[in-house]
Structures are given as structure tokens and as C-alpha cells.
Specification:
Layout (H helix, E strand, L loop, with lengths): L20 E11 L3 H7 L13 E3 L10 E5 L8 H5 L6 E9 L6 H8 L11 E3 L2 E4 L9 H11 L5 E5 L12 E6 L5 E6 L2 E6 L10 H8 L7 E4 L6 H7 L4 E5 L3 H13 L6 E4 L3 H18 L13 E4 L31 E8 L4 H13 L7 E9 L2 E9 L2 H4 L9 H7 L8
Parallel strand pairs: 6-7, 11-12, 11-14, 12-13, 14-15
Antiparallel strand pairs: 1-3, 1-4, 2-3, 5-6, 7-8, 9-10, 15-17, 16-17
Helix pairs in contact: 5-6
Length: 429
């Protein structure tokens, strides 16, 4: 009875007029002074499935103010014997006519009524500023525009609804998305997380709001004054949050649009003196910054600036391929003299990966050990989020083993690649 009209089934363009209907619901009529008592006594039976006023005047506004009101009840409500005996002339059970419209239902109820029967209703949305991001299934695609229009209507601050078309398979970690409702030119968003503000072009730079809890967990591991190496930094959330905790960061991303917005966000959050931004290939970044910091530490220059101190933590948030970049750390510290190695602090690496199977965490640990050609005696593997039914995102944190850090390097980045990658592309602002 409280579902939207059947006429909306199969709708592909939103027509809010088709959602109008009138129903009769049970209600308790009483004097206005008794409302708070009845609401408490019948709290489990008050109508709660619709976005309508629960307490309604008995008379129309044209008839003037009324001391009698009606409290709407659930449609299947039945008086108990005790409740029926308590009814008086001042408190009575009535039927009340209620007019329903598009605004009366929530998103789930609306889409359940619109999509074919027994269809899966999209309910998990990611929000970034004024953009909602949905991942529609193949069977939902014929209704993508009406799905987007419903979301746009029901979520007031939202200006644009986008649907992901496929996996992130490009080198710049950018979603292949299409706008299914709203403003197609509203790609630049402002996102607030904890005590920071981030700006980015959602269509050209990577952002995942679902990692907010994970970012908070990682930042809590850092101590003020520590230096962070952020290899796949995106627009800078990990590093900027760390800098706000009085840490220092070297943050890198290959995507020139991420680099552009990361540089902007450093200024926006006033951490310019604590963070350096780079636009390099990940391997070049790891090698270049590490060599510079190693030499600074050995020369004693780190006392002049914390950004010249060796990093304590490495963040590698590129779950699709980050594990494959771990071999960049093999032999990375081999230039440190033997007599300095006992006092030289090696970093803790926090590497993210996707995994499936019966034991995803064990799978990731074995992959890391295979890349490093070394057993991890101590490490922490943690569940981050469920990506799909058979796919998890996992974080593995471990201290870089000395036998890996000081091992003779087995491969080098070519001088040609290094020279090309170190040139920062000119950005169109």
C-alpha cells in the first residue's frame, strides 16, 4: 500500500507526477496537549517508512487553528485489548487520508519501484564534494539516466552523478566514467577530510572517499617530526594529513593533474614548509629522493632541515600494482658504509594490494616476499575494504629488511628513462 504507484515501473526518464497517489492510514486523534505522551507510548507503531508529517492537523488551514491532531500509524497497526480499552472521546482511532508524492519516498524505495521486479537496487554511492559516483551493473545500464536523476533529486547538495565504465587500467589512475545526470562541467570538487581541505578535478585525478578511515589509521602510526615518502600520492591526502600532525613528506604522483592539485592542496592547507611535491615515475622518485636523503644524513645536513632527513615511513597506495614496485628498494641503501649501518634507521613500508581467494592476507605476504626475495619475519597484514564479492583491499606493513636494503642492486633504471621522467610536464591551469 505504501509503495510508489505501479505506473512508474520501467520508467527511463524521471516523471515526478506519476508518483502521486492517495492512501488511507490509521491514526490516533487527540488534543494537541497529549501528543508527546502518545508519541512515547506508541513509538514503535508510529509511521516511519515515508517522508511525511507524522502529526497532522485534523482541520484544514482555511478552517483556522485546531486543538485536535492526528498521529499517523503504521498501516498494519492493530489496537491491543488494553489500548482499545484506554480510548476515550478525547483519544480515538481514525482513518486518515494522506497524499503521497515523489518526495515521500527514499532513494531505495523509488528505484525499487522504477527498476524491473527482482532487480538489484544500487544503494552504495561514493560521494566526493558535489559528485556522486555509482558503479552500475550491466542490467541497470538501460535505466542509468533515471537512476542518476533520482539521486540528483533526493541528495540536495549533489550537482553531478557519474557511473564508472570500467576498471582503472591507465597509468594515471583515472576512472573511465560518464556523467549520467546533472552538470557535465562540474568536475572540480572540494572535499573535506578530518581537519584538511582538498581540491581536485574528479574526472582527471584519483580520489577515493572510502579510504578515509584507512588514512586516519595510518596517520595515527606516525610520530610528529617523522618524514614520509608517499610514492603514489594522488592529490596528497596521506601526506597532507601527516604534515598537519607535524610530520614532513616527500609526495609523488605520475599523473600531472594529480601533481597540479597536490601542489595546490599543499598551499591550501598551509604545509608548504613541510612537504615537497614530485611528478615522477615511481621508481625514479624512490631512487632519486632516497639517494639525496642518504647523502644528507651521511653529511649531517639533516640537522639543517627535516626535509633532508631520512624517511621513517613509505606509503604505497596503488593496490593494483604497488607490490611490483617494491623491488625498487632492493639494494637502495647499499651506499651506506658498513660502519654506519647499525645506526641507520630503515623505513617501515605500508603497501596496498588487491587480493582474492581463501586467505587474501597470506597471498599478499607471499607476493611481497617473492618480489623482495626475502622472508618477512615480522609484518602486519590488515583488511582495508571489501572491493567486490571475492576481492579485498589489503595493507601490509613491514620494516624494510636489512638484507634487502643493503643487497647489491640487481637492476637499474636506465639513464634515458630517468632523464625523461625527471622532467616535469608543463601544466595547463
Amino acid at each position: 500500500m505504501l509503495l510508489p504507484p505501479s505506473a512508474v515501473r520501467g520508467m527511463k526518464t524521471l516523471n515526478k507526477d506519476l508518483f502521486m497517489k492517495t492512501v488511507r492510514l490509521p491514526a490516533i486523534q487527540m488534543t494537541r496537549t497529549r501528543v508527546h505522551v502518545i508519541l512515547q507510548e506508541l513509538k514503535n507503531n508510529i509511521l516511519d517508512s515515508l517522508n511525511v508529517r507524522r502529526v497532522m492537523n485534523v482541520t484544514s488551514p482555511e478552517e483556522g487553528p485546531s486543538q485536535q491532531v492526528a498521529v499517523l500509524l503504521k498501516p498494519d497497526y492493530k489496537l491491543s485489548a488494553q489500548e482499545e480499552s484506554s480510548l476515550t472521546e478525547d483519544i480515538k482511532l481514525i482513518d486518515r487520508e494522506v497524499h503521497l508524492e515523489f518526495s515521500s519516498w527514499d532513494i531505495r524505495a523509488l528505484l525499487s519501484a522504477i527498476l524491473p521486479e527482482n532487480s538489484v537496487v544500487p544503494t552504495a554511492f561514493e560521494t566526493a564534494g558535489h559528485i556522486v559516483h555509482v558503479n552500475l551493473r550491466d542490467e541497470q545500464l538501460p535505466y542509468k539516466h533515471v537512476i542518476g536523476e533520482v539521486i540528483l533529486e533526493k541528495l540536495a547538495p549533489i550537482k553531478t552523478v557519474v557511473n564508472k565504465l570500467g576498471k582503472i587500467e591507465n597509468e594515471f589512475r583515472v576512472f573511465d566514467i560518464e556523467v549520467i545526470a546533472g552538470d557535465k562541467d562540474a568536475g572540480v570538487v572540494t572535499v573535506k577530510e578530518q581537519y584538511c581541505t582538498f581540491k581536485l578535478d574528479y574526472f582527471k585525478a584519483f580520489w577515493n572517499s572510502r579510504l578515509q578511515g584507512e588514512r586516519k589509521r595510518i596517520i595515527e602510526l606516525f610520530k610528529p617530526g617523522e618524514v614520509i615518502l608517499d610514492v603514489f600520492a594522488g592529490v596528497g591526502p596521506f601526506s597532507i594529513l601527516a604534515c598537519k600532525k607535524q610530520c614532513f613528506a616527500h609526495a609523488n604522483d605520475l599523473n600531472p593533474n594529480c601533481y597540479k592539485w597536490m601542489s595546490e592542496n599543499v598551499k591550501l592547507n598551509r604545509v608548504v614548509d613541510r612537504m615537497e611535491c614530485y611528478n615522477l615515475d615511481a621508481r625514479v622518485f624512490i631512487k632519486q629522493v632516497s639517494e639525496q636523503l642518504i647523502q644528507s644524513e651521511l653529511a649531517g645536513d639533516s640537522f639543517a632541515s627535516k626535509l633532508k632527513s631520512m624517511y621513517s615511513h613509505v606509503i604505497m597506495n596503488l593496490p593494483g600494482t604497488a607490490v611490483d614496485f617494491l623491488n625498487a628498494f632492493i639494494g637502495l641503501f647499499s651506499s651506506v658504509p658498513q660502519d654506519k649501518r647499525d645506526i641507520f634507521q630503515l623505513p617501515t613500508i605500508h603497501c596496498y594490494s588487491f587480493a582474492s581467494g581463501e586467505d587474501p592476507r597470506r597471498e599478499v605476504k607471499q607476493r611481497v616476499e617473492g618480489i623482495l626475495i626475502s622472508k618477512l619475519v615480522t609484518c602486519d597484514t590488515s583488511f582495508v575494504r571489501q572491493v567486490s564479492t571475492n576481492k579485498e583491499q589489503v595493507r601490509i606493513s613491514f620494516k624494510l629488511p636489512p638484507e634487502v636494503a643493503y643487497r647489491h642492486q640487481q637492476s637499474q633504471v636506465s639513464d634515458v628513462d630517468s632523464e625523461q621522467q625527471q622532467k616535469k610536464p608543463k601544466l595547463e591551469v
